[in-house]
């Protein structure tokens, strides 16, 4: 099969998935656009449906393309991403899922505002949520550009990547603006089924190729990696110096703690009717995610063994195209019908993954803009006491309208940043988003849920004390300047040696929350904490 036929088949499959998702969006858009419908899908999803949607939100381009690519390039050191992403869900299940569902309505700021002064807390939490969402969006859209670049190939691949980023951005704006949470959830469910099915098929084909002998797979991967047996031990990416070792620790901290602070994951707990349903949703999600991340290990080492690390690097220096290249080899190789078909199918599944995830992230960020920032600016949020029912309804309709426009604005910013970061590994970019989430969102959330003395000043300081240092450290890191693969390769102003800021910014966020609380002249509201504690543990009064 000629390369043109392969490209044509990929485009047909892309078009088919986009058509299905647009139909879902049109169906969901026919429903009444109340705030609970737009932001939470009417709270009508079952635990299984929501579990599939949570898994779909989480199993992103970073998982399918980036992690496998890092394993194919760096072997053992790439495993950190698989382990970190999976272990993070234990933190979510044990500390966050049920309590967040009971205490909030649509966003993280709802939980913080339950016992604090609403205006400063909502502005801080809303700003942090939008920032994290944009960073996460950049990673997904870079993955889309890398994927289409290798599918279409040729001298115009850079142009194709650019237009792909713009197209994905336009689609995500449409999904959110017209379909809301209901459309986004069903798109996630369809995507999860496709992704799990495609990953299982590839994993089985890899294991069949090596007759089920995983040891043989590992040794073949080491032989074809160019690094020998060192490929199977630590140190290729994170062991060359003290800086890289600290980066290893920093990344692990960000991955394990960051999940519980991701806005688009937290918003998923509000789409089910009860806290018990939220907890069961996470159990479903852990099962799906656990199986998936185990399979990414097989795919990463399979790409190193069957494609070769050098070829993966030549196709995309960040490793983002390892899985599509592996699929082509498993189907029969370049120029064969089987190779072209499997290559196109995997490309379409990866593209579906990206579209679904960017829709979920965009919805979460637009909800923060409308429900937290806009409602605060209007000085009458939906939870403001004493307002007439008509005024409340008008305010909620205003939030929905603002959320639709916010989706467009967030999409435009994400497109612009994605065009600058096209040569970065998507799993690495997601690691930065996790670091910001772990630094800005998680400390304030845990303090609010578990510390009776926590005050409004502590909440605001905790958010900004994690958000601003993490962004500053990224800007001053070698990710932005000082290296050929940096965002700004022509200049060098980096002074912070680590690529991931989590090791420094997470403790700063925790420290800032404590310091703001102990220096606050405003005493903690014991009655509000007692009410929140009862509500979080029993569900009494939950929305």
Automatic annotation (TrEMBL):
The chain crosses the membrane at residues 6-29, 50-73, 79-100, 121-142, 162-181, 193-210, 248-270, 282-307, 340-370, 402-420, 426-447, 459-480. Pfam families: SSF. It is a multi-pass membrane protein. Keywords: Cell membrane, Membrane, Symport, Transmembrane, Transmembrane helix, Transport. CDD domains: SLC5sbd_u4. The keyword Metal-binding does not apply. Signal peptide: none annotated. InterPro entries: Na/Glc_symporter_sf, Na/solute_symporter, Sodium:Solute_Symporter. It is found in: Cell membrane. PROSITE patterns: NA_SOLUT_SYMP_3 (PS50283). Belongs to the sodium:solute symporter (SSF) (TC 2.A.21) family. PANTHER family: CATION_ACETATE SYMPORTER ACTP, SODIUM/PROLINE SYMPORTER-RELATED. This is Cation acetate symporter.
């Amino acid at each position: 099969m000629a390369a043109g036929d392969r490209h044509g088949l990929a485009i047909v499959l892309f078009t088919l998935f986009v058509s299905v998702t647009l139909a879902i969006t049109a169906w969901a858009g026919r429903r009444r656009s109340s705030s609970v419908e737009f932001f939470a899908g009417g709270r009508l999803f079952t635990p299984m449906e929501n579990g599939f949607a949570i898994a779909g939100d989480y199993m992103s381009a970073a998982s399918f393309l980036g992690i496998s690519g890092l394993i194919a390039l760096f072997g053992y050191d790439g495993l950190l991403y698989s382990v970190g992403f999976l272990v993070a869900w234990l933190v979510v299940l044990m500390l966050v899922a049920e309590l967040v569902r009971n205490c909030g309505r649509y966003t993280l700021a709802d939980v913080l505002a339950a016992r604090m002064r609403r205006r400063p807390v909502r502005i801080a939490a809303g700003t942090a949520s939008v920032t994290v969402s944009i960073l996460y969006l950049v990673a997904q859209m870079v993955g889309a550009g890398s994927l289409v670049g290798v599918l279409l190939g040729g001298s115009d691949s850079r142009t194709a990547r650019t237009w792909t980023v713009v197209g994905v951005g336009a689609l995500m704006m449409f999904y959110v603006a017209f379909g809301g949470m209901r459309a986004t959830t069903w798109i996630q469910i369809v995507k999860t089924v496709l992704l799990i099915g495609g990953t299982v098929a590839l994993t089985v084909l890899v294991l069949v190729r090596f007759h089920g002998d995983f040891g043989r797979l590992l040794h073949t991967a080491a032989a074809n990696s160019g690094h020998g047996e060192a490929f199977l031990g630590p140190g290729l990416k994170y062991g060359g110096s003290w800086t890289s070792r600290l980066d290893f620790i920093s990344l692990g901290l960000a991955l394990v703690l960051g999940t519980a602070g991701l806005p688009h994951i937290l918003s998923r707990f509000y789409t089910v009717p009860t806290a018990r349903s939220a907890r069961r949703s996470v159990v479903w999600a852990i099962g799906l995610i656990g199986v998936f991340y185990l399979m990414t290990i097989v795919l990463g080492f399979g790409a190193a063994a069957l494609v070769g690390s050098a070829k993966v690097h030549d196709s995309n220096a960040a490793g983002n195209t390892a899985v599509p290249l592996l699929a082509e080899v498993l189907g029969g190789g370049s120029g064969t019908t089987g190779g072209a078909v499997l290559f196109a199918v995997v490309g379409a599944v990866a593209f579906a993954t990206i579209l679904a995830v960017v829709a979920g992230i965009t919805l979460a960020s637009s909800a923060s803009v409308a429900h937290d920032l806009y409602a605060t600016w209007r000085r009458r949020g939906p939870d403001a006491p004493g307002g007439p029912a008509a005024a409340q309804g008008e305010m909620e309709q205003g939030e929905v309208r603002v959320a639709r426009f916010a989706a467009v604005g967030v999409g435009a910013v994400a497109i612009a940043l994605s065009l600058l970061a096209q040569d970065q590994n998507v799993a690495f970019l997601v690691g930065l988003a996790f670091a910001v989430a772990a630094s800005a969102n998680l400390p304030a959330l845990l303090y609010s849920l578990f510390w009776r003395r926590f005050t409004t000043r502590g909440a605001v300081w905790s958010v900004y004390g994690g958000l601003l240092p993490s962004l500053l450290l990224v800007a001053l890191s070698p990710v932005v300047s000082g290296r050929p693969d940096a965002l700004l390769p022509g200049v060098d102003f980096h002074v912070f040696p680590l690529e991931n800021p989590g090791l420094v910014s997470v403790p700063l966020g925790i420290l800032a929350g404590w310091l703001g609380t102990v220096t606050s002249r405003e005493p903690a509201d014991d009655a509000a904490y007692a009410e929140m504690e009862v509500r979080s543990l029993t569900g009494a009064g939950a929305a």
